[in-house]
Design brief:
The protein has a 6-stranded antiparallel sheet. The relative contact order is 0.15. The chain is built from 4 helices and 6 strands. The protein is of the alpha+beta class.
Length: 148
Amino acid sequence: MCRSSEPKQKGETMTSQERAAVMKKCQELSLAGRIAFPETVRRLSEAGVERYHVDLTRDETTYYLSCGESHALALGGPHGTINGPFDATGVEGAVRASQRGEVTYREFLSRIMAAGCVGYFTQITGRKVQYVGRTGDMHVEPFPGTTV
């Protein structure tokens, strides 16, 4: 079993089921527009998640912990085929709109899909997000406040 580097309370560590519950809750709150990216990252990090992959083609998110444990959850995001070429400017525009609080997570996903993004990798420990198109084109966004 994976142990969190961050105790949930003095002397206690999270179980695998508790970690999975945090992941599921963050995803649900994000899709409902009730939690922003920085809070999601904070909660996931506290649960021991070092990175996650959102696969828009499969409509699922896989969370990875530093101990090697992983959890996959159905995303329940917007549906549709992602056919167009990758548009890094479109992805960046969706990111900026999200950062300004102008769009919900669900709308953000719709916008990056429309920009040809098939998925993204959020590197919590690396403090960046890598957006990927069908042919391997990529746009990298550092977390707000991170210098490259």
